[in-house]
Amino acid sequence: MAWLGFVTLLTIYWCFFVAATTGRIGWCLLTGWLLPILALTISFRKGMQVNGLMVLICFVLLVVRLVQINVKNGTDYEKNVLSLLNYDGQTIPYKRGDITDRNKTVLATSEKIYNLVLDPYVITHSNIDKASEYAKEVLEEYFSISKDDVDTILTQQPDSRYVVLKRKMTYDEKKPYDDFLASEDENDAQKIKAVSSGIWFEESYQRIYPFSTLACDLIGFTASDNSGLWGIESYYNDTLSGTNGRKYGYLTDNVDLQTVTEEPHNGKTVVSTIDINIQRIAEKYISQFMTETGAKNVAAIVMNPNNGEVLAMASAPIFDLNNPRDLTVAGYTEDQLADMKDEEMSDVLYTLWRNFCVNDSYEPGSTVKTMTVSYALDQALVDPNEQFYCDGGQTYENDGTFVSCNSVHGELDLTGGITHSCNDVMMQLSDRIGITSFTKMQKLFGLGQLTGIDLPGEASCAGTIYTADNMGPVEMWTSSFGQGYNATMVQVVSAFCSIVNGGYYYKPHVVSEIASDNGNTVQVFDKTLMRTTVSKTTSEWMKNALYETVENGTGKAAQVAGYKIGGKTGTAEKLPRGGKERLVSFIGAAPIDDPQLVVYVVVDEANAEDQGQSSFASTIASNIFSEALPYLQIFPTEEVTETETTNENTSDGSYDDQANEGADNSDNGTSDDDE
After folding, report:
1. Rounded to whole angstroms, how far apart are CA atoms 240 and 229?
2. Other CB atoms within 10 Å distance of the CB of residue 347
């Protein structure tokens, strides 16, 4: 029976350990377990006397130790067990980090709000007379909650510990109650004591966007769980997020315990590259166009070509970041919304929240002619002064497919090919480049590839780009002037910046630095050079050609009095071919001899009989340049004539060579005017 003595010894050890660590509960366990076992042990024969003696010795030693522990730490152990029995805790929410523009103007922030909470149990079980009446009086006086409503809660839920009476209260709304609790008026002392533990506030944060619709596609918004959706809010969600804290309360009958607080760790601040004033300028002129003409989509990117920083990114239609599901802001009427099914509304919201500049793609049109010409020059495949002959298009002899130009231009030099946006010249250049090198050229300029911009959902368009295996001569021709494949605005603008800045392809980005919640910079995002695309010589030649395009060619509507603007127009015929749907664009730089600003504007399916007027986009770009340049302290360098002053930004789209630019009309050998 030696095993019985061993088990008895282990049991005694366990009982005393529980007693020593849990206080009163342990003594109950000791009495319930130990005494019967001791009685059983004493009843055994002489063979168990040794075991009994061992138990007795251990018992005496442990009793002595227990007394020591109880005298020294008994209160603490009692507090531990009581805290487990009467535990209460509150989550202390973290503050999500701010999003600012480059000058630290706040674009998104989190405002503390308060939920008014009633603890019926504390009120109804209070040892203070009239505690319930005090609670009803206070709630009616400071929060306009009727006494009857409070009485109903106290009567029907007397043991409840948590009833939210009001949500999303501001600090100003709760302050009078805080002042009441802090009152030293003896007449209020009893009332304060009665309600202070039973009426309290639960803190949380509400995301606020001070400028409502400004940069909505770029910033994004947050879901109900404080996680970011779309834009910077989504891409930098981990940076903006923090860690909740915790406040632990220990409610005891007789022991006074202090609360323990684990402070929250707030999210970091994201400083964007966006300049709020340039963003406003871009949005103003997009809005103006939407009001006067309208279109399916209108978008603009303003970028510093020397470092890849996005200064503005805007599109229409817009939405309210503070209420992103409100479609009336986007122009929908109440009747339209009433007739809209849930699935249809979801599709509309998804389209509205997408960033056209990054998430959507399209056939870019003639803006990519800058890439075709630059590559041919860089590869020494063409002389800048070489003459070309445009007879209205090219015919593929194998099957008779005819790909047209917008006009019969006759003899043109290379500059004239750009200035008049001649498709025929581009096709002749592509023949010299060859299919294998042409696909390499597209990769060099980032077509069909992710730029790596720090925004979610960037489209690569890789599936639309021909490879050396599936590109034929006709596909190469149409690709040379921007038809037959898709690109994104951020792809095109990044490539164009490299062409005008000396050949340096910088990674586009919308965030410049990360700061702690107290304002200290913790990370800086410098410009990132990805590769070189063209030589400086080619870049200089192209800038001159772009200047001629705005001065004397298809881009006249982009002129700004006093400034040297260089740029390229684009008109893409949308699928299905032969229809009237067009996407027009303009991309330009200023001052063109030393570019500091690049503006890219896309107008998709303008509400006009002739959608192919590139002046739609050129005029918007001109207006953006005209305000953004002086704001950046880039001042005019050219003499302004009286005529220029009078005619500035008054283009009616009647310039030569502006319609239907770069359209692919190769189907069945038919042709149409395209620029």
Report:
1. 12
2. 12
- 74 in Cβ contact with 169 (< 8 Å): no
Of 316, 370, 367, 306, nearest to 632 (Cα)?
306
Which pairing describes strands 521-524 and 410-413: parallel, antiparallel, or unpaired? unpaired
Beta bridge partners of 566: 589
Rg of the Cα trace of the chain?
38
CATH of domain 359-669: 3.40.710.10
User: Please, are residues 478 and 501 in contact by the beta-carbon 8 Å criterion?
Assistant: no
Q: Which residue has the tokens 């107290």?
A: 518
Count the alpha carbons within 13 Å of 143 in the hemisphere toward its beta carbon: 30
| CA nearest neighbour of 167 among 211, 120, 221, 203 | 203
Report the predicted TM-score, pTM, of the whole model to 2 decimal places: 0.82
Q: What share of the chain is helix, strand, coil (3-state, %, to 5)?
A: 45, 20, 35
Phi/psi for 127 (5° steps) reads -90, 10
Q: What is the DSSP string of 573-624?
A: EPSSTTSS-EEEEEEEEESTTS--EEEEEEEEEESSS-TTBTHHHHHHHHHH
The angle that helices 473-480 and 435-444 make with each other, rounded to 10 degrees, is 30
CATH 3.40.710.10 range(s) for the chain read: 359-669
Strands (E), 471-528: 504-506, 511-515, 521-524
Query: What separation in angstroms does the CA of 111 have from each of 5, 98, 206, 208, 231?
Result: 67, 10, 5, 7, 20
Segments of the chain with pLDDT less than 50: 25, 27-29, 44-47, 78-79, 81-87, 251, 254-257, 649-660, 662-675
How far is Cα of residue 328 from the mean position of the Cα atoms in its chain?
Answer: 22
**Which 3-state string (H, E, C) describes 611-630?**
CCECHHHHHHHHHHHHHHHH
Q: Which residues contact 279 (CB under 8 A, 6 or more apart)?
A: 101, 214, 215, 311, 312, 313, 314
Q: Is 35 helix (H, G, I), strand (E, B) or coil?
A: helix
Q: Measured between alpha carbons, how far is 33 from 31 in angstroms, rounded to an integer?
A: 6
How many CA within 13 A on the CB side of residue 583? Answer: 26
Distance CA 95, CA 93 (A): 7
Angstrom distances, CA of residue 143 to CA of 137, 139, 196, 198: 10, 5, 15, 15
- In DSSP terms, which residues pair with 91 in a beta bridge? 246
CA distance 361 to 342: 26
Residue-wise pLDDT tens digits, 124-177: 998 888 999 999 999 999 999 999 999 999 999 999 989 999 999 999 999 999
Taking domain 91-272, whether its CATH number is 3.90.1310.10 is answered by: yes
Structure token pair of residue 63: 């009793």
pLDDT digits (tens, 9 = 90+) for 261-292: 888 999 999 999 999 999 999 999 999 999 99
What phi and psi values does residue 49 have, to the nearest 5 degrees? Answer: -65, -35
Cα 536 to Cα 530: distance, rounded to the nearest angstrom: 16
How are beta strands 106-118 and 199-208 bridged, if at all? antiparallel
Q: Is the dihedral of CA 6, 10, 12, 13 positive or negative?
A: positive
